[in-house]
Amino acid sequence: MDITNIENSLLQGESADVLKQFPENIIDCTITSPPYDNLRNYKDCEWNFEKFKEIADELYRVTKKGGVVVWVVGDAVIKGSESGSSFKQALYFIELGFRLHDTMIFEKNTSSFPASRKGNRYTQIFEYMFVFSKDTKPNTATLICDKANKWAGHTNWGKNTHRNKAGDLIETKDIKPVPDFSPRNNIWTYQVNNKFNTNDKEAHKHPAIFPEKLVKDHILSWTKEGDLVLDPFAGSGTTLKVSDSLKRKFVGIERNGDYNKEIALPRLKKYIPTIELKIIEKVPEVIEEVIQEIIQNVVEEQEEEEYTEELLKKKKCPELKQICKSKKIKCYSRKRKNELIKLILNHKN
Q1: What's the total number of domains in the chain?
Q2: Could you tell me if 108 and 130 are in contact, meaning their C-beta atoms sit under 8 angstroms apart?
Q3: Are residues 308 and 173 in the same domain?
Q4: Which residues of the chain have pLDDT under 70?
Q5: How many C-beta atoms lie closer than 10 Å to residue 73's C-beta?
């Protein structure tokens, strides 16, 4: 498979491994929620900070400058204390070079049981929605204006004034009336029980589904039509479905084959008949080693082929040797890794 042809696809594989095969700077927006703190049993998937870092590193690499990552996450209570995993992850994103554009709240309007009167903590009804932008402010920020203004149509009473650079008080004559609606606050509330999340019955087989409205609101806020939206933990396929309905391109990654075949694919086929499940194999470690050595040691383009041939003499990798004999390896600076991976994957087919 040509991994560069990822638009409008559902890819099966480990998120970090699949993302490593993506070209750089291609994603406009990521909207996702990781399996944080092992709060649910995802079979043989153990989630920890090291695995998070692998994925965060790749998200930074594949996101466009000014692209956005919406990271929906919460904390488990372990031995009487919240884990703080959400904050550790947010700080790591910042360390990579992301800007923390906004710390938003996903409030769950749910009929969950209230906290015990004999307990020591209040009912937990929210998750964080960290909104990161790569290197600079978001390329797109279309704020949703649905907060009704009580004084719509009115102007201020008295005089409107401001101070100029000299410190003088200046009266503002051009006073605009209060608009009917203003941008909403950054605490977003959604119904999260059964049909309120989605009407798709297949989706409810998944243990943790997004409200479609939450995904829709973020897509409308941080993307424009034609942008490419990623969900590296695609689950039931909500981000993919909503992206398509809003005329955005999408790509989802999900490691769990049962989720893909029994939930996401049947659900998405109803809305996107052409969608297919694509199995992505991990690039062999020996090939990754070769790629890394090429990146680290080859500076000039003309050195590439000679150095690669010399390197392969030290590596027992018949597949790579065959590739080098059949096709000229030609890579350029930043594109070197992506071009080599593409060559390897195309050769497999």
Answers
A1: 3
A2: no
A3: no
A4: 1-4, 38-45, 111-112, 156-158, 194-196, 283-349
A5: 21
Q: How many CB atoms lie within 10 A of CB 256?
A: 19
Q: Does the CA dihedral 157-159-164-166 come out positive or negative?
A: negative
Token reading at 278 = 């694509």
The whole-model pTM stands at 0.80
> H or E element: which one contains 130?
strand 126-134
Roughly how many angstroms between the first and final C-alpha of the chain, as a whole number?
6
Q: Looking at the structure, tell me whether residues 16 and 100 fall in a common domain.
A: yes
Q: At 96, which CATH number?
A: 3.40.50.150
Looking at the structure, tell me whether residues 117 and 130 fall in a common domain. Answer: yes
Q: Which residue is associated with the tokens 């710390």?
A: 103
Rounded to whole angstroms, how far apart are CA atoms 91 and 49? 12
DSSP code per residue over 277-311: EEE-PPPPHHHHHHHHHHHHH--STTHHHHHHHHH
Cα–Cα distance, 28 to 41 (Å, whole number): 31
Nearest to 25 by CA among 334, 251, 254: 334
Cα angle, residue 18 at apex, residues 13 and 48 outer, rounded to 5°: 75
Residue 321 burial (10 A CB sphere; 0-12, 13-18, 19+): middle
**What tens digit of pLDDT does each residue of 299-316 get?**
444 455 555 555 555 555
pLDDT one-digit tens code per residue, 53-111: 999 999 999 999 999 999 999 998 888 899 999 999 999 999 999 999 999 999 999 76
Tokens of 134: 């790569």
Q: Is the dihedral of CA 208, 211, 214, 220 positive or negative?
A: positive
Domain that holds residue 13: 9-144+183-279
